[in-house]
Amino acid sequence: MRGAASALALAGFLAVLALVCVAAMVYGEWFDRRLLSSGALGVLLVLYAAIVVLFRKAGITAEE
Amino acid sequence: MYRRLLTGLQSATLRLDVGIQRVLPQDFNPLYYTGGLANLFLTVLVVSGILIFLYYEPSLEGAYASVEFLTRDVPYGVVFRGIHRYAADAYMVAILLHLFRNWFTDRYREARDSQWLSGMVLLVFSGLAGFTGYLLVWDERSQMLTSLTVQALRSVPLVGHWLAEVFVGGPGVSDTTLPRFLFLHVGPAMALYVLLWWHYVRLRHPKIWPPAVWVLFGLGLLFILASVLPATSGRPAQPGASPEGFPVDWFYLWPYVLARWMAPGWALALVVALLAYGMVIPYTLRETPEERGLRALGQAVVVDENCTGCELCYYDCPYNAIYMVPSPAPGKSRAAANRKLLAVVVDSRCVECGICIGACPFEALELPRMLDRDVQQRIQRGAQAPAAAAT
Ligand code: HEM
Ligand code: SF4
Ligand code: SF4
Fold first, then answer.
1. CATH of span B301-383
2. Where are the domains of chain B?
3. From atom 2 of ligand 3, which residue's Cα is the shortest distance away?
């Protein structure tokens, strides 16, 4: 149970980081720094992958 | 010696799985999806390739400039170019992992040779599409690769000059060269999909797509690489110049690294020899069932009187080795009395996996030699038990 709670807490933290990435994407597009936007998109996708793993560890998603 | 090496590699592969599964849930183990990952990166290659193709001009004067235009002036053009390049690398890594994993876990023998052979042809076409991609930019590297390839092809006995002409689209580099390279890039890439049909046709449930976690991670990684290390061209190719060094990309261009130390013809011969060896791998070290002894389970056998024709085994056999045929006569058991269909095992496709035995609710399938083995093991155990009791 404790493991599940900490996995969820970490997933929450990564979700906040993902929001920062969204901000970076918007900033990059607005100020013509497109490599920043696409890099932030890449980090966002990797964060989502980590969140998928953490959800499984927390028991929220089941095996397919 | 070779056999011992393979056994060692097999147990190393399995230990690696155990290690990965300490960290990740079992169904997230990326090594279970190496084929699926190759497919993912191939899809990315096709999509990004189409976007790049919209801007590409296949001519000696225009190619380099069109790639530069895409990289500098088209919004996110540099990102798509980078994604195309890094997806090509990731694709090759995935295929090689797939190849070695299937090799080291013995999944190429007997009935699986069709997958292995189609895999080798996929490898050839993938290598061809990958390598010709580097030519399309028409920078100094492209020029150097072209001249080395022409030298290598010309040194092939009898048909060498003809091959070189086919490659560059004429007696020398001319206006037909870049359209020819474009064809040699896109043609093999399209052929991959026909070959994939051959690759999957014998598999009933191929896992052709990795789980979401790896799709997200793979795509994320490509975006990060394309942004942190943007793809660039070298200096433009100069007519008649012979550039000295060029940066190599190991995944596709390793034969050209060899060509620094040996004549290009020998590097080509080495590649051909390696591929030829790959093609005969399924037929080396073949053992008869007698030689395999207790390890041989024998092909599955249908117990005619028990089969009800329920088709469960037919859906579950991963290798399409079970066919349902109209039943010539009713079965003997009560459940089988009114059957319309009968299961038949195609021996040459059965890999002796035993999955159908678990699928059949009516005890109508067996691996005959497995029964023998079970009996022998029980006898052995029985023989050991009194000895153990005595000590
Ligand atoms: C374009 C590249 C390739 C793709 C996209 C691909 C994809 C796949 C997929 C999706 C499967 C089914 C896996 C499963 O159901 O678990 C598979 C099976 C297989 N592949 Fe590939 N493959 C490629 C290249 C190769 C190569 C180069 C080889 C080796 C020479 C190879 C050998 C095999 C074998 C032996 C199997 C059968 C495995 C088994 O029976 O469990 N493949 N491939
Ligand atoms: S043992 Fe059964 S499931 Fe496995 S390949 Fe043979 S027929 Fe198919
Ligand atoms: S699962 Fe068993 S009973 Fe059903 S068709 Fe196959 S062999 Fe016959």
1. 3.30.70.20
2. 22-239+247-283, 301-383
3. B360
Nearest by CB: B223 against A38, A47, A64: A38
Task: Give pLDDT, residue A34.
Answer: 93
From the list A42, A47, A48, the residue facing B221 with the nearest CB is A42
Rounded (10°) angle between helices B77-104 and B113-136: 150
pTM of model > 0.90: no
pLDDT digits (tens, 9 = 90+) for A7-54: 899 999 999 999 999 999 999 999 999 999 999 999 999 999 999 999
Strands (E) across chain B are located at: 301-302, 322-326, 341-345, 365-366
Of B181, B75, B211, B63, which Cα lies nearest the Cα of A61? B211
Q: Does A52 touch chain B (CB under 8 A)?
A: yes
Cβ within 8 Å, pair A41-B221: no
- Which top CATH class is B22-239+247-283? mainly alpha
**Local structure of residue B134 (DSSP, 8 states):** H
ipTM at complex level: 0.94
B317 lines ligand 3 (CB under 6 A): no
Question: Lowest-pLDDT range, B13-22, B113-122, B243-252, B363-372?
Answer: B243-252
Let me know how long chain A is: 64
pLDDT value for B40: 97
Closest chain A residue by Cα to residue B72: A34
Among candidates B102, B80, B82, B95, which has minimal Cα distance to B38?
A: B95
More confident residue, B266 or A60: B266
Q: Give the separation between CA A20 and CA A17, rounded to whole angstroms.
A: 5
Average pLDDT, chain B: 88
Q: Do A36 and A24 form a contact (C-beta atoms < 8 A)?
A: yes
Q: Could you tell me if B87 and B38 are in contact, meaning their C-beta atoms sit under 8 angstroms apart?
A: no
- Decide if A35 and B216 are in contact by the 8 Å CB cutoff: no
